[in-house]
Amino acid sequence: MSTNYDVIVIGGGPGGYVAAIRAAQLGLKTACVEKWIGKEGTPALGGTCLNVGCIPSKALLESSEKYEEASSHLGTHGISTGDVSIDVAKMIGRKDQIVAGMTGGIAQLFKANKIDWLQGHGKLLAERQVSVAGHDGVETTYQAKNVIIATGSTPINIPSAPLTDELIVDNEGALNWETTPKRLGVIGAGVIGLEMGSVWRRLGAEVVVLEAMDTFLGGVDQQIAKHSLKEFKKQGLDIKTGARLNNTVVGENELTLEYSDKDGDQTVTVDRLIVAVGRRANTIDIADESVGLALDDRGRVDVNDKLETNIPGVYAIGDVVRGPMLAHKAEEEGVIVAECIAGQNSTMHYDAIPWVIYTDPEIAWVGKTEEQLKEEGIAYKSGSFSFAINGRAQAMDKANGLVKILADETTDRILGMHFVGPMASELVGQGVIAMESQNTAEDLARTVFAHPSLSECIHEAAFSVDGRAIHGVNRRKK
What we know:
redox-active center, FAD/NAD-bd_sf, 31% helix
């Protein structure tokens, strides 16, 4: 194995492994440093996303949704199933198989692209050198012409709920329980909290979610957020906003959560607790102090528009830099940086990055919310359409939710597209394409959509922007 490379990537998560593959495709001699040890005790690529994040959580969401559908919702289709049971350990095993298959697939891609996988902890040294402390304790130094920092993020811990091996866990621990708790507490009503809370509620847990913010899903368009909250509460998720955890008392087999809300001090007793209050950039020990790597006021690696750090030839991407902590954002940044290193003038548009919460109903959006447009003083018009009127959604027994389109008052350019309802995670891609293509609401209104399909709601919402939805009652213009 060589010790000199055109590119060394520190971190093998979505941003890092994609950057390495793209760099290798462009003819650059490439290595990728990754220290992750998988559940089976062997080195693994894929970082948080593939090992304990995006992929395993979606596997559990899918399994738990099928269980709930079979046990509670098939009767409306005329299907009788009798008693339905869930083997939680087998469900977890299936999740682990999916993870192993995908991380192994990345290793195969590295081999196919002649990328060297340097297993261990990577650290940036002066003159674009990278030291790798291997799992065997041996430290090796490598030289690179360019270095890409892609070290991702780690969960934020809170002193009021210190993690334990089993009772108090973060997202990783919540993916590995092989029994369903009777009473589950979740701290944080964000993406992870809602998704993992949904998994265990479907499997029979009584779930209480404590959210310190007064507003539910404050970064989401509030029309969408309010509809989502109503549905989650119908399902049995007990979501308490404005509830700040003060202390966790650990008993022999239960936990007492002491929190404060608008009514004063409160307590609730649970059997297990998931802490999901957010993530922070992983910048601990990624660079020697002598290097002088600049961080911003939030502890992230400071980069310019080309994702270059203050050190020539050193770049940073993904969760470790500014912008949303999303795997697909990291992947695209990885492609951009690899191409820039190869001499291409590649750029990325940050105003059309989709967000998804994989609950039921799914929540997805791209672009500006109505609240952001008001705050920024941008004149806009809005159109929406309900899945309740959509034939495909009714046939799926998922006729709940809506599509909302925000367009510029003057130019009609689409500024945002928001979804709550069936397959929102797939439909939002149409909004991304529309925004990247600088489409107007009229462009979508004049586009033919298949019938019957869920995407017809996008078509109707586009018509609704100018008060001419065909299959719904239009709001009167003031």
